[in-house]
Amino acid sequence: MKKVIHTLFPAPWLSVALALMWLVLNHSLSRGHIALAIILGWFVPVFTASLRPTPITIQHPLVALKLFLTVGYDVIVSNIVVATAAAKFGKRKPSGDFIRVPLELSDPNGLTALAAICTVIPGTIWSELALDRSAVLIHVFDLKNPQAEIIRFKNRYEKPLMEIFQ
């Protein structure tokens, strides 16, 4: 029975997230949109199951919530910092540069989440993952102290992801 449920719903949290996202984006709770949300929530995970490397198991949901709020806060603050720096571009040029961050995180889903976090936060770009997954090269918009940025990155993003996925 459990195998049948897993076959029908290979990623239940993804199904729920997709259905909710459909409803939020359409600003509607009509029967038609609810039906489409359910179909989308079922269809996408079933037909993309082979693309996911390993099943996702979240070990600590409260840590995941805290990380979500941290990333949300960082997105807002980084938007302000980047916009302010762009407005003052003539006065002081940002000193963007690449840094190599050693990684302890090895779970493929955790690494995917880390790449998404780097992508969504203005001023940081995930550039390259080492072949052995031991380090990531990221570009920081205005890098003042590389060592402090590495410590911040590991504490704010990598450590919570390790708690969640490993």
UniProtKB/TrEMBL annotation:
GO terms for molecular function: monoatomic cation transmembrane transporter activity. The keyword Nucleus does not apply. It comes from the Bacteria. Its main location: membrane. It is found in: Cell membrane. It is a multi-pass membrane protein. The keyword Membrane applies. Keywords: Cell membrane, Membrane, Transmembrane, Transmembrane helix. Pfam families: MNHE (PF01899). The chain crosses the membrane at residues 7-25, 31-51, 63-90. InterPro entries: Cation_antiport_E. GO terms for cellular component: plasma membrane. PANTHER family: NA(+)/H(+) ANTIPORTER SUBUNIT E1, NA(+)_H(+) ANTIPORTER SUBUNIT E1. Belongs to the CPA3 antiporters (TC 2.A.63) subunit E family. This is Na(+)/H(+) antiporter subunit E1. It comes from Saezia sanguinis.
